[in-house]
Amino acid sequence: MRVVVSGGSGFLGSHLCEALLRRRDRVCCLDNFSSGRVLNLAPMMSKPGFECIPGDVTDPLRVHGDVDAVVHLASPASPLDYARRPLQTLATGSRGTENLLELAVRHRARFVLASTSEVYGDPEIHPQDEDYWGHVNPVGPRSVYDEAKRFAEALTMAYRRSRGADTGIVRIFNTYGPRMRADDGRVVSTFVTQALDGEALTVFGDGGQTRSLCYVDDMVRGLLAMVDADLPGPVNLGNPCERTVRELAELVLMITGSDSGLCFLPLPVDDPVRRRPVITRAFETLGWQPQVPLEEGLRRTVAWFAARSDTSVPPPDS
Ligand code: NAD
Ligand code: UDP
C-alpha cells in the first residue's frame, strides 16, 4: 500500500510512519512542521518507500502517484499548541480535512480521521463510549480544537454518505511516549521533563482530575487496525487505566527517583474533570486492546527523555 500520512513528522505520526514502513507499506508524509520535527523523520529519510512533502494541508495538496490510504493526523494537538494557533487549528480541522477527503475520494483510498476524546468535552457520563454526544463549550478556549474535530467528524461522515468515501474515525484518548516535545505543555512530557530537571511538577488545580493514558506503541497498533478495516467508526482508542493527575505526578517522581516535589497552579478553563474510554467497540471490531501498563510505558518514556536534550521546537510565529 501507499499511505499518505498528514502530520507524519509529529509525535504519533512519526511512529505511525515507521510502523507502516516496517510492514513494507510506502509512506508519503505531509507536514508543515508547525509542531512536528524533522528529527522525528531522520530514521526514515533514507528508507526506501518513504517520502516527505513539506506543506500545509489547508493549501492545495501536491501528492502525485497512487494512494491506497490516507491517515489524517495533522492538527495542533496539545492545549498549549492549539491555544497558540486557534485559527490554524480550525482551518486544519475543516479545510485540511476536506482536502484530504478529496484526495482519498479521487484515489478510492481508505480515509482514517484522527479524532479525539475532546469531542466528549467535559463529559457528563463516565466512562465515555462512542454513543455519547459530548459536552463541549463551543465558545471556550478549547473550542477551536474540540469543534474543529467535531466538524472533521461530521465532514468525514458526509463524504461517506454523499460521496461513497471509505472512511473510518478513531477517537484517540491521551497518548504518551518517546518523541513528545518537552515543551508541548502536555502532562506526561511536562512532568517527566520537570522531574529530570529537578523542578517542581506543576499540578493544575488540586490534581484530582483524571486522565487515562495510552502508550504510543499501543495507539499505533490501533491506528493500523483501523487503516486495514472497513469500519466507519467512531471507535475509541485509549487505555482505560484511569489515574488522577496527582497520582500521575507521584508515579513520575517515583520512576525518575526525583525529589522535585509538586507545586499547584490554577486549573485551566474548561479542563475536563474526568476521562476514561470504553473500548469494547475497539476490542470487538478491531480485536484491539492496549498492552503496555502505565508504569512500563512511563519508564520507557523517562528513559527516552533522559537520553535526549533536544526535545523542543522553536516557538511558533503566530
Ligand atoms: P503533534 O503536534 O506531535 O503532531 C501533529 C502534526 O501535524 C505535526 O507534525 C504538525 O507539524 C502537523 N500539522 C499541524 N497542522 C498542520 C497543517 N495545517 N498542515 C500540515 N501539517 C500540520 O501531535 P500528536 O500528538 O502526534 O497528534 C496527532 C493527531 O492525533 C492530531 O490530529 C491530534 O488531534 C490527534 N490526537 C492526539 C492525542 C495525543 O494524546 N497525542 C490525543 C487525541 C487526538
Ligand atoms: N496538567 C497539569 N500540569 C501540567 C500539564 C497538564 O496538571 O503541567 C493537567 C491538565 O490540567 C489536565 C491533564 O493534566 O487536567 C492532562 O493535560 P494535557 O494537556 O496533557 O491533556 P488534555 O487536557 O488535553 O487531556
UniProtKB/TrEMBL annotation:
Keyword DNA-binding among record annotations: no
Keyword match NAD: yes
Keywords: Decarboxylase, Lyase, NAD
Organism: Streptomyces olindensis
Coiled-coil residues: none
Pfam families referenced in this protein's UniProt entry, alphabetically: Epimerase
Matching SUPFAM superfamilies: NAD(P)-binding Rossmann-fold domains
Name listed for the protein in its UniProt record: UDP-glucuronic acid decarboxylase family protein
Cofactor(s) in the UniProt record: NAD(+)
